[in-house]
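Shapes recur. Our protein:

. . .
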Amino acid sequence: MRVKVFLCIEREVETLVPRHHLAPLAICREVKEVELRDLEGKIPSAIIEKLIQYNSAIIKDPMAIKELTGYDKGAAYVKLIKV
């Protein structure tokens, strides 16, 4: 089973609208496509189970983000999508 790995970096937006009216703003880019088995041992098994069950999962752990993407510079998350 193939999985696309997206790195999503959260951005600040200056606005006159209160923050609770806006969804979080993130810019996502595809980093790579891997086999599901390549993720085993790099991310918790609960996330792998969620990915299998729901076809997508989000990783917010900074160490796992760095392991998967090499990114370690701030507010970010990884989105996994089963393809």
User: Anything to note?
Assistant: The first strand starts at residue 2 and ends at 10.
